[in-house]
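hi support,

uploading two proteins for the ticket. first:
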Amino acid sequence: MTQTEIQPLSKSVTANRENENIQKPVDVANSESKQGNIFTSRPVYTGIAAIAVVAMGEAATETTLVERCLRSARVGGNWNGAFIVLTDAPVDTFQYLHKTHGENVIVLQAKPKDMNEDLVKVMSFKRFKTLIWEYVELVPELDNLKWIAYVDIDIVFGRDLNLFFQDFLETTYHTVSDKEHINDELENTVRSKLYFFPEQNPLKKRQGQMHHGGIIIMHRTESRDCLKLWQAEFDKTAGTKARRDQNGLKAIRERIQDGLETNCKLVSIQKQIPHVVFPESDLMQKMVEHHAKATFIHVTNTNRAKRIPGEIQEEFFRYVLQIPITDTDSALDHLVKKQTHRR
């Protein structure tokens, strides 16, 4: 198996289904393409999955979180496929990334019609999570994409993302789809779906009962109705402090539970180990000591990271980003420093 291909799914899963690659290179010139508010490095992969981040406000210009996320995807996540950055900054801001961290970086600038004073005031950039697919459709080279893993920019990757997608498709996605297919034959109902890990932040009430909004798996067509509902919830609370992603998800979840919403299903990815972890100081030190990693490692930059001493973070991120602790003069040294931003 090459680095750019996922292993074929098991026969029990792939029966009567396409045997698809997660990352598949196409034969195009190794050059750059810049068209207006889109920057695409070449070659672009036509695999079925991509990683996407939303980098807006000071997070886009005053930290190196996007570069840290990308670096970890390449080295820890073994990800050479598409890495999409949706930003309000000029596309040139992130143009350097493909030169230092490989090809297949797609930078999309937010359209003026999607930006307004309210967004800037209350930092509700999270609404752009619901718009990612609309922007991706502006890039013809990504027409083959079926899946996007949206991640917050303060997430880093420690395990092979190809194996995560394989695991997700074999377990969560096909299990839910097969069960729903049986029910659909009886009830004639079809639901749009978004996929989340359960919230595990001990500081948040009802942890495990909420959906963690920092990692979202979205299907190109099957997730659209849910994304539109979520976008509508953002717009209902425009200009207020209630305009938060979790408030919108809660409203949708409650309507589903009450039987008032039948076109959307919020699916929890139950297999959390070894895929997701939310480390504090002690866990960071243990992971380094025992050489342990997870697929998605979320050190919330507006909250958790502020409480973790800088030296612990530096050692941890050197470990995840594979930057030797003895290499203090590395050109990548800036990626391991403690950095936080306000909402």
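and the second one:
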Amino acid sequence: MPTLLPSPENPPLSQPVRPGLRFLVAIVLLVGISQYLVRGTYRALKGSGDFSGPYAASRVFWQGGNTYDTETLRNELKAAQVPGLTPYSHIASCLYPPQTFVLYSPLGLLKWQYAKFLLALINSILPIVALASLSWTDRQIDFRTLIMALMLVLFWAPLHSGIGLGQPAVVSVSLSLIAMQLAASNRQGLAGWVLAASVFAKVHDALPVVIYFALRRWWKSLLILAVVGAISTVFIGMWWGTDTQTMIQTLLKNYRFEQDRGLMSPSGPMNWQRIDVSSLWPGRTLGMAVLLTVIALPLTGLLAWRDRNRDTSGCPTKTQAISLACLSLWSLLVVYHRYYDAHVLLVPLLHGLQAGPWNIDSMKVKWAAGIGVLPFLAPLAAMVYTWWPEWRAPLHASDVGQLLMLHVNLVLLIAFFCSAWLLTRTLRNAGSND
């Protein structure tokens, strides 16, 4: 467990805590646990619909079928007698890399009800393990910070949605945070294997952490990731054999379909669920993505280069969380993401809490972070659809429905520019001290 640091503001645990404050914290934690279990685990046991695609694809993969053919996946779900999903019309075109199917093979071998139950347990427990991993480094964590981190995880609505839907994003992001803590505690070998599993679970959710590993110069972990990726790719190519070209062609066909006519395409009826820049500027998505990339990557790279020349141990603690936040926000905005993918923001938030108090713009950072997390503590769109089901059809038929996620898009964009500004401020301060 983390070492709890006593301070004037944080009394030691041996001293009595005010009964009123202790009772309030206990009530808030109880509400958080209830939300986590009801909106997350309970819904996962009943549904986990997003996992049906990878589940079917994993089974088809080992049968030697085309894992990217939508009709084949629907037939497999029917053969597996997956209940509650007939006629399986909800299955979107499969875009996961084949390594994802290999990773989920143990679940694919089970009957659906057992696989769904086991996945619900994995997705519910992994975020808690990721939270506990904050104690694996030598950095000490005070009691208030630990409680705040726990509340953040318990109340994080995108995490609830991810668990309830059986989303691979939950596995990917949780393993990313665990890999970071392993690498930071000088266990880069194990961190590389965990990072590989994170990438295979959902590659674009693990992307910012992979870049962060490069900025921290954790080369051993990245080498293991590259070797595991290369070996798995060779194995998959050998397994597919002469069908490899057909698989790749079908995957590219799926990608083009989802881009042009899919449910989540810019013109699709479910596009309002996207939190990337495509919903803000449908006709200028590529240009905006390039602009954000030009801002984010050079800034984080320059910061890492400066710190390398000033300190061989890597980026200073106070700048790590800002760099990671900038990368996480960048990835959410430039790549296709839905509401539950905002689970990735827990990585820089928890890392920032672990980093402790900052001397540079401490209050500004706290205010920016506080405003930035608000849309993810209350799922507005889900609340509208749950409490007023009669609004669903009118919202789908109207352009007003596109505004349901607008507050999230704007907050992410504002938070990105705030983190970029803080990076430039850090660079200026570092330059003045040279």
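thanks. also noticed: Residues 272-434 form one domain.
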